[in-house]
Amino acid sequence: MLTKNSQQNLVWSILWIITSLLMLVLILLIGFVFVKGAPEMKLSFIFGATTNGGLMTPIVGTLYLTIMTLIFLIPLSVGTALYLSEYAKQNWFTEFIRYSLSSLAGIPSIIFGLFGVALFVMIWFKKASIIAGSFTLTCLALPFMVATTEEAIRSIPKAWREASYGLGATKWYTIIHVVLPNATPGILTGVIMSIGRVIAETAPLLATAGFSAFLPVSPLDGTRTLALHLFYLATEAPTVGGLTRNDLLSQAMAVGTVLILLIILLNFLARMIFNHFNQKVRGFR
Amino acid sequence: MKKNEDGRKHKISVRNLDFYYGKKQVLKNISMDIRENKITALMGPSGCGKSTFLRVMNRMNDLIPEAKASGTVLLDHEDIYGNNTDVVKLRQRVGMVFQQPNPLPKSIFENMAYGLKIKGIHDKGKQAELIEKSLKKTSLWGEVKEELHKSALSLSGGQQQRLCIARTIVMEPEMILMDEPCSALDPISTTKIEELMKELVDDYTIVIVTHNMQQAHRISDWTGFFYMGDLLEYGKTKEVFNEPKEKKTREYIEGRWG
Predict the structure, then answer these.
(1) Is the dihedral of CA B21, B22, B25, B31 positive or negative?
(2) Which of A3, A51, A214, B205 is a plausible cystine mate for B175, CB 3.0–4.6 Å?
(3) Domain-located, residue A21
(4) Domain annotation covers residue A206
(5) How many angstroms separate the CA atoms of B12 and B31, rounded?
(6) B10-253 domain in CATH 3.40.50.12780?
(7) What is the pLDDT of residues A59-78, one digit of tens each?
(8) DSSP letters spanning A185-247
(9) Beta-carbon contacts of residue A252 (< 8 Å; ≥ 6 apart)
(10) Domain range list for chain B
């Protein structure tokens, strides 16, 4: 029989091993990508023209697509969240909207890609382009953004709303002067998480964003994001410019490195904003 | 205007008020007159409807989707539940102080200016003048005049509640509704607020909901005793406390339950 103490130690050890395994997987994965990509991590590669094998177009394309997506995503999701949490009566219709949103959140991203091709590419814009891609990504990120924004709006204490109404403020005045300013950090956190999502996605963009290697100018130009570029590099047949399969793979790893660093940076940023907000609220109480 | 035996006019006249949250009736056939420039205390056990009744007078209950009122509530002979009532104007005339001090997460100055901006007073100089006056009235001026631009949430609980009172009177209302304004405060802050109420009653009609019988006894001129949605007894505070007519009131005052 084990004593109480050694039982404790046994459980502790098992849990420690499980956690360490998880860390190991993460370290292995990131380490592998970093090590394999390191030889290609040169400024001339990262900032070189993509027609010469550089990353300039995917970097610009990622930024362009992200900004375009946010332009549509933020007003749509803040508007929807405000309607749902402040104005809508709780009835079958709002239930239906919520149900639709949570269903949307569970749909595989490739389906969004398919929908984007069918509607935005083939009917609206007649070509795979930044605008078609950003519309598709907006649809994809909308459920998450609405949920985050609603959460941020709901976290505003009832007492603050009452204070505002008690002084004769209308609902709209209260929203503009009390609700939105205090929900902004929460909404911003959602925005940054959405950016992370947009940057990481490939499936919805495969057939909607085009794959042009030239620097995009108009929103109707096609482009590629870092994630897309990585996909092309990893699947391309080794024909062009005397590059071998291995060269292309280590280029893909370098792109992966840039992508991972970006995501880590964004997560860090989101955490900073969230902590700042939390401290502010706690300091106030 | 109709006068009472004590020569005070009725600021608020409630007749046959029924109030529902969904199907649940929380106020039953209430008729009550609130005297001008007097402190009226509403007391009773939890869930008796006294807070709901308070929130009828500035229609704060409108925020609850299922709430429904019937009967008449006259403020200076105007039915506040009538079709022409501008709720925004009503809440400026009938200010409210809540149970938990609820300054907005803004500076002290911004808290005070919040209502003024709603009223259309945007001139900083005019704002500052009115704000100083109100803060002096609530004896907060000396404590905060150097730090008007600090967050209102950095004040102590008692200061926050006095700020909320100042924020209400800067609007120059006719009435102030107070929903257990001292229940979250320490005894010293409570005393300060009670003294303040006694000063303010010269200019305003005050209605206060309180759990605290001693407080009702100390500060109010009139007392209403609510029990399970009924107004069981209403009269001059001295009379209600010294010779209550209802058995339930007497038991409550003697502290047998509640």
Answers:
(1) positive
(2) B205
(3) no
(4) yes
(5) 10
(6) no
(7) 899 989 999 999 999 999 99
(8) HHHHHHHHHHHHHHHH--GGGTTTS----SPP-STTS----HHHHHHHHHHS-TTGGG--HHH
(9) A37, A230, A233, A234
(10) 10-253
Per-residue pLDDT of chain A (285 residues; tens, 9 = 90+): 667 788 889 999 999 999 999 999 999 999 999 998 888 888 888 888 887 778 888 989 998 999 999 999 999 999 999 999 988 888 899 889 889 998 988 899 999 999 999 999 888 998 889 999 999 999 999 999 999 999 999 999 999 999 999 999 999 999 999 999 999 888 988 898 898 888 888 889 988 888 888 888 888 888 888 998 888 888 876 665 667 778 888 888 889 998 888 888 888 887 888 777 766 654 444
What the block records as the tokens of B253 is 């005052």
What range does the domain containing A151 cover?
33-280
- Does B64 touch chain A if contact means CB atoms closer than 8 Å? no
Query: A162, B65: Cβ pair inside 8 Å?
Result: no
- What burial class does residue A6 get, using C-beta atoms within 10 Å of its C-beta: 0-12 exposed, 13-18 middle, 19+ buried? exposed
What CATH number is given to the structural domain containing A274?
1.10.3720.10
- Which of B51, B96, B102 to probe by mutation at the A interface, max A CB count within 10 Å? B102
Q: What is the pTM for the complete model shown? A: 0.81
Of A157, A166, A170, Cβ closest to residue B60: A166
A positions 164-193 inside 8 Å of B (CB)? 164-170, 173, 177-178, 182
Say how far apart CA B168 and CA B182 lie, in whole Å. 16
All residues of chain A having their beta carbon less than 8 Å from the beta carbon of residue B59 are none
Count: domains in chain A: 1
Answer yes or no: is A120 within a domain: yes
